[in-house]
């Protein structure tokens, strides 16, 4: 007669995030002792942590927290969408997010080394890695501050947690415009806030490419400066948030929309899982 019930297996899965077969085997080995089964899963799982280091963790979620003029964004990755959908993984991501808020972390390395309950965040991830059986990593952390911070989380699939997250810091409160711009950034994938934020070497590269392309197309020599400048400006319009055509009204730029609302964006962050 089995030393455990189906309810025991379900409870063990919910607590640890481990697979059904692993839970069954752990309960058999523990002769039905729930706490011992949890320990068995951890011990066996930790042995495989190193083996999982080389695996690709390209699934997961983006989580955000906004409060007191501060926005924090984290990307936590796992290997499969099955785990990403799980309650255990999502609870872990929220724990990581709260730690990032509490420690004012601005990068993943500092967050992973921070202390939570006598352990580092990396220790907590390793333990989760052990029970869930997948590689789990904190890939990125962002923190923006301002008089007003808007956030937006987007699900690319209804059965998955948010895969895209955006924070936008404004110099004055403009709730509707801030949310609209955050949604715009989620859809339009800007890389920079303003053209002043684009590194000089990136601009120079775009200028070289524009000139070489224009020459290849046989454009008149006298017209090259104007054509090159136009193409570089086109790069800014594609990649700079404030210069992009606003998704809801392409006749306006994002900067114009914010100006109409009496605000300006001072910082933004955008994460897409795996990108």
TrEMBL record:
One of its GO terms (molecular function) is translation elongation factor activity. It comes from the Bacteria. Transmembrane segments: none annotated. It is found in: Cytoplasm. Residues 80-83 are annotated as: Involved in Mg(2+) ion dislocation from EF-Tu. It holds the Pfam family EF_TS. InterPro entries: EF-Ts_dimer_sf, Transl_elong_EFTs/EF1B, Transl_elong_EFTs/EF1B_dimer, Transl_elong_Ts_CS, UBA-like_sf. GO terms for cellular component: cytoplasm. PANTHER family: ELONGATION FACTOR TS, ELONGATION FACTOR TS, MITOCHONDRIAL. Belongs to the EF-Ts family. This is Elongation factor Ts. It comes from Kineococcus xinjiangensis.
């Amino acid at each position: 007669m089995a030393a455990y019930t189906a309810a025991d297996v379900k409870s063990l899965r919910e607590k640890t995030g481990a697979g059904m077969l692993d839970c069954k085997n752990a309960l058999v080995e523990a002769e039905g002792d729930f706490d011992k089964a949890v320990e068995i899963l951890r011990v066996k799982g930790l042995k495989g942590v190193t083996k999982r280091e080389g695996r690709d963790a390209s699934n997961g979620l983006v989580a955000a927290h906004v409060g007191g003029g501060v926005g924090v964004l984290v990307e936590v990755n796992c290997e499969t969408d099955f785990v990403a959908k799980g309650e255990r993984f999502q609870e872990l991501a929220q724990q990581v997010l709260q730690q990032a808020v509490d420690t004012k972390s601005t990068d993943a390395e500092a967050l992973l080394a921070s202390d939570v309950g006598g352990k580092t965040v990396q220790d907590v991830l390793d333990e989760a890695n052990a029970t869930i059986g997948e590689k789990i990593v904190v890939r990125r952390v962002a923190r923006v501050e301002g008089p007003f911070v808007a956030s937006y989380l987007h699900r690319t699939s209804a059965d998955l947690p948010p895969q895209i997250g955006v924070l936008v810091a404004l110099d004055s409160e403009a709730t509707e415009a801030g949310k609209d711009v955050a949604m715009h950034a989620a859809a339009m994938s800007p890389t920079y806030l303003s053209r002043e934020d684009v590194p000089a070497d990136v601009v120079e590269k775009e200028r070289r490419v524009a000139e070489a392309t224009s020459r290849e197309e046989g454009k008149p020599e006298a017209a090259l400066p104007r054509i090159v400048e136009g193409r570089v400006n086109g790069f800014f319009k594609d990649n700079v948030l404030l210069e992009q055509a606003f998704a809801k009204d392409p006749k306006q730029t994002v900067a114009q929309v914010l100006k109409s609302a009496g605000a300006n964006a001072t910082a933004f962050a955008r994460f897409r899982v795996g990108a």
